[in-house]
Design goal:
Elements lengths: L1 H24 L7 H10 L1 H18 L2 E2 L1 H6 L3 H5 L8 E2 L3 H21 L4 H33 L4 H13 L4 H9 L1 H16 L1
Antiparallel strand pairs: 1-2
């Protein structure tokens, strides 16, 4: 388990580094930092909510999978689901996964309440519910990113530039494979946490 923890920590460090690189690369287009500070002082509560939305959106959407990587691996259709990002697709996110699990659980509970379902139908409802919830959260998180960014004093184009700079820092195919390989580790970590909470 130590190796899995180390790999997950390395993935986290790479994501943080990409965010720093994104802020650094997009720094010229972000304008005056004093405008953001004055906005924070003028409306502290609104700024706090906006900053939280911005964080959730950025955390969900960083890192992301470039369209070229998806097309090379035969998953170009995933890019079609996200035309507003230029075809970039989000990597695994704990936020998306939690929302997907919640949606899947609600779908199976509703199925059982209305009729006694077979194991196959229950499993199918859970999978469809999870995928639907996961995708819906990625759309919601993108709006959080944009609304939160504008709420802290950035324009929509500045938010996009910042995000694009961050995800471009990790578009290397080897880093993409590393992040994909970390998905089972993140899933295991999340399910262990959910199990502890449930008990």
């Amino acid at each position: 388990m130590g190796l899995l923890s180390s790999l997950d920590s390395l993935a986290t460090l790479l994501i943080i580094a990409s965010l720093i690189a994104g802020f650094w690369n997009a720094g010229n287009s972000l304008g005056s930092i004093s405008e953001i500070v004055s906005h924070m002082i003028d409306e502290p509560q609104g700024f706090g909510v906006s900053a939280a939305l911005f964080y959730i959106g950025l955390d969900t959407w960083t890192p992301a999978i470039p369209p070229e990587f998806l097309s090379q691996k035969g998953f170009v259709w995933i890019s079609w689901l996200y035309p507003f990002t230029g075809g970039w697709a989000p990597h695994f996110s704990l936020w998306s996964c939690l929302f997907g699990i919640l949606t899947a659980t609600l779908a199976t509970l509703i199925l059982h309440k209305w009729r006694k379902a077979s194991l196959f139908k229950t499993a199918l409802a859970w999978i469809v519910g999870f995928l639907t919830g996961y995708y819906f959260w990625t759309l919601l998180a993108w709006h959080f990113l944009m609304i939160g960014g504008q709420g802290i004093g950035l324009t929509a184009s500045q938010v996009y530039d910042l995000w694009h700079s961050a995800v471009s820092a990790t578009e290397n195919p080897y880093l993409q494979i590393f992040f994909l390989a970390n998905i089972p580790i993140s899933f295991l970590w999340l399910f262990r946490r959910i199990g502890r909470f449930a008990l």
